[in-house]
Design brief:
By secondary structure, the chain is α+β, with helices and mostly antiparallel strands. The protein has a domain of 47 residues. The longest helix has 13 residues.
């Protein structure tokens, strides 16, 4: 596990926990209305579980539906 620094305090109007589709939408909506918004995501990248699953599907297949390698 990598080390992570933690802010002791930060004043925000909206705190969004999770950078998946719903979290991104909530954060963008709040910020678009002028709220000081903070989005936190534990995975280190945005997109949530959908980004992981979609990436695996795309990266495991070649044109024609043949897998890149067999396990």
């Amino acid at each position: 596990m990598s080390e992570r620094s933690v802010l002791e305090s930060m004043d925000v109007d909206v705190l969004v926990a999770g950078g998946g589709p719903a979290g991104l939408g909530a954060a963008l909506g709040a910020a678009g209305q002028g709220a000081k918004t903070l989005l936190v995501e534990r995975m280190g990248f945005l997109g949530g579980v959908g980004a992981i699953g979609l990436g695996m599907t795309i990266n495991q297949m070649r044109p024609g539906g043949q897998p890149r390698s067999k396990v």
